[in-house]
Design a protein that fits this description.
Distance between the termini of chain B: 21 Å
Number of strands of chain B: 10
Number of helices of chain A: 12
Distance between the termini of chain A: 51 Å
Helix content of chain B: 55-70%
Structural class of chain A: alpha/beta
Strand content of chain A: 15-25%
Helix content of chain A: 40-55%
Largest interface: A-B, 23 and 18 residues
Order of helices and strands of chain A: EEEHEEHEHHHHHEHEHEEHHH
Shape of chain B: elongated
Radius of gyration of chain A: 20 Å
Oligomer: heterodimer
Chain lengths: ~260, ~500
């Protein structure tokens, strides 16, 4: 469904993305995992042409993304990023309905679609529809951003570290929502994160990147069992090490169950 | 009161000028602001140019439009130069705020706009302009207030405005008139500011009623401002004869005497255009934008006809000879006719306080010589630059402690309260009587003669011989004493210029 062939992005002498080839199957959720400066976000943004590659090709459903004007491409691809970019001068309903409005849907259809989407992301349409983004909590705003990305029924969704700024509880609840929604709608998703747990929980497959290069792609189990690179092993082991440390901490003091009321 | 009757006309003229300048300013600077945020390398030169325009003193900017337009062969007096000046002046606040407003938008919002599939145009209209709107509107409000204020300065370039009240009021010491002009301008500024603000609030609250109300008032104002233009276009059967006046009391009185005389003898409609700058007046006559005004032989000789004469013409001169030469040159060079010599001179004259004159024994300018290094001299903006002043300095060997240029309306006050000791007064000014000043005799004949003459423009000469005949009837009707009395009556606040003129025409001076 999404194909990257030998895609590179250079800024002068600096190489941000180095000959990356990737394939996201229809209905699959592929996570791009890596630290800052790994090129994962640049790779993602080349798919909807927010960044144009220096060389290589990208195909969406078999068609080269450079075939038409960028705005038409972007209307077929949902896009959610960490800083949200909700339009502060528009209501929640107008934010969610923006792409359908650009596509020229009639008002009644947009309204119905907006309400359905708000329910899908577990918001009460009656309560939030007319609010401005400034009057939403962080988690609510992120749900609205997801609803906006889904509004024009795109077959493909791009997430750029969408939950990085949220507290752990909210983040987990949103991750569950995403997992449910993409199965429900059969979406093809590319999801960028530096959070290994998030990658393992959400991803059908995980692609690990470092210094602009793709190190390895595979299911979480496969990567752990047979890392192709020391960095892959190191990054995947990090949460296990953390979990062990936490367990040890709880083991030494009184057990958590006993302190609970 | 004559002044209040003029208020609706001046107010709508002022409003028209302001609204059109402001509309043009916004129509140009918002797109320009958008452009420079797209093409960043244009930002510095464009904003720089607008800032430089803004630093030009507004009066100078408006006055500069007159020769600039004349050089281009365009209509150089009145509405057009004022409009262009005001338009240029209105640009910067809107431009700067548009750029600031567009630049201040969160980059994440712009990325989102691209991400949801907006074209650059959709992004501009749906996201960028709405988000920049409050700042743009703040710029428009600043611009509106500035433009209303600056528009008062369009009077000296020949465009009627509320400035007429201020300029003529200052000259004729009619402070009620000054206050009327200022209050009306301030009220207008507040009204426009409030309307623009109301419009923004209406848009932000999406209240059709508020927006509709503000637009309605705007429409009403625009209709008011346009009414005289439309009316003028419809009623253009007999174009009025336009009589100009420079910026001092005597000119206001004489222009009304001339208007009254024409109306009386020919029953043609007349119109007076007040407070023209000194060189603006002659240019306006030459190019047919006014038909008649009163000027002075020495002024014409020294400034208008000077170009071919060289610089050294000022010196002891014969009154009749100067007049003859001026008449001949004006006719040959410009087709301008001296329709009447009024019979008095209004020359530059050095005047001192009576107390000083008695204490120092001053009667003639030559008596000043010894004392000059201890005295301060004041004069209008022009005198020190004019050939007459060099002639005075040379003939009498005068070197004053300090020279100060000031507005002629304040000069007499400055002498009276001791800020200066000698002034370059106008010999017919009423304040010479009111302030008990002594005019020093020009015993070495250094100051050229300044006979007051009624000038008629080429069109009037060709097309209206009956008006020329009517003007000829003014020949020799006013002597210096009579002129000084009429000036004094206005300056002391006993009567407005029109009333004095009427009394003169009834033979009561």
């Amino acid at each position: 469904m999404i194909e990257l062939l030998e895609v590179s992005k250079r800024y002068g002498d600096a190489v941000a993305v180095d000959r990356v080839s990737l394939r996201v199957e229809p209905g699959e959720l592929l996570v791009l995992l890596g630290g800052s400066g790994s090129g994962k976000t640049t790779t993602l943004k080349m798919v909807n042409r927010l960044i144009e590659p220096t060389s290589g090709r990208i195909r969406l459903a078999g068609k080269d993304v450079t075939a038409g004007p960028p705005h038409e491409l972007r209307r077929r691809i949902g896009y959610v990023f960490q800083r949200l970019g909700l339009f502060p001068h528009l209501t929640v309903a107008d934010n969610v309905g923006i792409t359908p409005a650009l596509l020229g849907w009639d008002a009644a259809r947009i309204r119905a679609r907006v309400d359905a989407l708000l329910e899908l992301v577990e918001l009460d349409p009656a309560q939030v529809r007319e609010r401005r983004p400034g009057a939403l909590s962080g988690g609510q705003a992120q749900r609205v951003a997801v609803a906006r990305a889904l509004a024009a029924e795109p077959p493909v969704l791009l997430f750029d570290e969408p939950f990085g700024a949220l507290d752990p509880i909210t983040r987990e609840s949103l991750q569950r929502a995403i997992a449910r929604i993409r199965r429900q709608l059969g979406l093809t998703v590319m999801f960028v994160t530096h959070d290994v747990v998030e990658a393992l929980v959400l991803g059908d497959r995980v692609a690990v990147m470092r210094h602009g290069r793709l190190l390895q792609v595979g299911g979480g189990q496969d990567l752990l069992r047979a890392p192709a690179d020391p960095y892959v092993e190191q990054i995947l082991r990090a949460p296990l090490e953390q979990a062990r440390a936490v367990t040890a901490l709880f083991g030494e003091s009184s057990a958590p169950e006993e302190t609970a009321p | 009161m004559e002044q209040l009757a003029l208020l609706p006309g001046r107010l709508t003229a002022h409003l028209g000028l302001t609204l059109v300048a402001l509309a043009l300013g916004v129509a140009v600077s918002v797109p320009l602001g958008v452009l420079v945020t797209r093409v960043r390398r244009l930002e510095a030169p464009v904003l720089g140019t607008a800032s430089v325009i803004q630093t030009i003193p507004s009066l100078a900017l408006l006055a500069f439009m007159v020769p600039a337009l004349a050089a281009l062969g365009a209509r150089s007096i009145g509405y057009v130069p004022a409009l262009i000046g005001l338009f240029l002046y209105s640009l910067l606040p809107v431009l700067r705020n548009t750029v600031a407003g567009l630049s201040a938008i969160d980059p994440a919002v712009l990325e989102a706009a691209d991400g949801v599939g907006m074209t650059p145009r959709e992004r501009l209209w749906r996201v960028e302009l709405p988000l920049a709107l409050p700042l743009i509107v703040a710029g428009v409000r600043t611009s509106a207030v500035w433009t209303v204020g600056t528009a008062t300065l369009s009077t000296p370039v020949g465009a009627p405005s509320l400035g007429d009240f201020i300029f003529s009021g200052l000259q004729t010491r009619n402070f009620t008139s000054v206050v009327v002009g200022c209050v009306a301008a301030a009220g207008l500024a507040l009204l426009l500011d409030g309307l623009v603000r109301g419009l923004l609030i209406g848009v932000e609250r999406r209240s059709r009623r508020v927006v509709g109300l503000c637009l309605g008032v705007f429409g009403l104002l625009a209709a008011l401002a346009a009414a005289p233009v439309v009316g003028g276009a419809l009623g253009r059967g007999t174009a009025p004869i336009v009589i100009g006046a420079k910026t001092f009391t005597e000119q206001y009185i004489l222009s009304r005497i001339v208007a009254g005389r024409i109306a009386e003898a020919t029953h043609r409609p007349t119109e007076t255009l007040d407070s023209l700058g000194s060189t603006v007046a002659f240019d306006a006559l030459r190019t047919g934008q006014i038909d008649v005004y009163v000027d002075y032989s020495g002024t014409l000789w020294a400034t208008v006809l000077a170009s071919n004469q060289g610089e050294a013409q000022a010196g002891p001169m014969d009154r009749a000879a100067v007049l003859r030469e001026v008449e001949q040159k004006l006719r040959e060079r410009y087709g301008v006719l001296v329709a009447a010599r009024l019979g008095f001179e209004n020359t530059y004259a050095l005047a001192v306080r009576r107390a000083d004159a008695e204490r120092l024994g001053l009667r003639r300018i030559s008596d000043l010589g010894r004392h000059a290094p201890g005295l301060k001299v004041g004069a209008d903006y022009e005198l020190f630059q004019r050939p007459e002043w060099r002639s005075i300095e040379r003939a009498y060997g005068l070197k004053f402690a300090e020279q100060r240029s000031m507005d002629p309306s304040l000069m007499y006050e400055a002498l009276k309260n001791g800020a200066v000791d000698v002034i370059g007064a106008f010999s017919t000014d009423g304040r010479i009587i009111s302030y008990d000043l002594v005019v020093l005799e020009d015993d070495r004949g250094a100051i050229p003669p300044y006979d007051a003459v009624v000038l008629a423009g080429p069109r009037l000469v060709r097309e209206h011989p009956e008006v020329i005949r009517a003007l000829a009837g003014l020949e020799g009707t006013i002597d210096a004493a009579k002129m000084r009395r009429m000036n004094a009556d206005v300056d002391e606040g006993k009567a407005v210029p029109a009333a004095v003129a009427e009394r003169f025409l009834q033979g009561r001076y």
